[in-house]
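Researcher: We're teaching a course module on how sequence relates to structure. For the next exercise, students receive a sequence and then see the predicted structure as C-alpha cells, so they can try to spot secondary structure elements on their own. Here is the exercise chain.
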Amino acid sequence: MARERRPAEELSIEELESLLARKKLEARDERLRQFRRSGRALKLRSEPSLPSHIQEVQTIPGANGDEPDEEIPRERRSAVRSSFNKVLLGIEIVAVIALAFILFNGAGALRTLNQEVADAIGGGVPTPTPLIKAVVLPSGHTPPDSPGGAKPNEAEIPENLRPLVQSLPAVAIPTPGPEQARNIYIPAIWNASAPVVQGDGWEQLKRGVGQHVGSVNPGDVGNLVLSAHNDIFGELFRDLDKLKPGDEILVSTATREYTYRVTGLRIVEPTEVEVMESTNRPTITLISCYPYLKDTQRIVVFGELVGG
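Model: And here is the predicted structure for the students to work with:
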C-alpha cells in the first residue's frame, strides 16, 4: 500500500532531510545515466548506499524509469589498454634510437672540431704547399744600365694576364724550418757558398738565392726551384751558362747536405713557367735572367739528386 503523502509543514526535520537527499540522488543518477548513454562514464560495480534514515524514502529501483546500463566488456578494456601500452613502448624505443644517433653524431663532430683546432695551432702533421702557378719566371728585372736602373720588369707579363696578376693575393713567406734549404754551393763556378732564403720576390733576391714558395725541400721527391740575379745583388747566378752535365750542386739544410748533379741547360722565354712544374723524382732547377746586362730571357739549369 502506497505511503500517504503529507503536507510539507507536517514533516519532521529528519523527513525533510531525507526527501532533499533523495532528490539530489535522483538528479545525480539521471546525469550518470546520460553520461553512460553517451559513452562518457562507466557503470560502477556497486553504488554507494545511503544512510539508513534516507533509505526509507528511496524509490523502488525502476520506479523512475531507470534503464539497465550495459557495462563495457573487460576483454575490450584489456585489449585497448594493451594496444595503448604497445604504442607508448614504440614511441620510447624510437626516442632512445634518435637520442643515440644524436649523441653519436655529436661525438664525431666534436672529434673533427678538436682535430681542426689542433691542426690550426700546429698540432697536426704539416702538408706541403702546392707549387703556385706563376705567370712569368722569377728573377726578371730591367738591366742596371737602363733608364731608371734595375727594377722589376712588369713588361714581361703578357698584357692579357696583367689583371690576373694584380688580383692575386700576396704570397706569405714561410718561416724557415730545419729541413728547408739554408745554403747552396756550386764548385764549378763558385769559391764559396751562398745563402738561400724563402721566397723569390724582388726583396728576397736582394739577400741571396731564393727558393720558390711551394717547391719541395732538398732531398724530397719533387722539384726544388732556386732563383738569383745574374747582374745585380751579387750576380750570384752570372755564370750558370758555364755549367755542364755532371757538375755538382750542393744544397745544405740545418741537418745535412744534399748533392745534385747537372743534367741539362736551356734558354727559355720568361713565360715558359712549365720548367718549375713538380716532378716524380728529386730534382733541382736553377733560374736566372739572360743574357748578361740584357735580361730579356731566362737561363735554366736542371739537375737530379745523386742517389735519389
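Model: If you want an answer key for the exercise: Residues 154-158+178-305 form a domain with the Sortase; Chain: A; fold (CATH 2.40.260.10). The radius of gyration is 50 Å.
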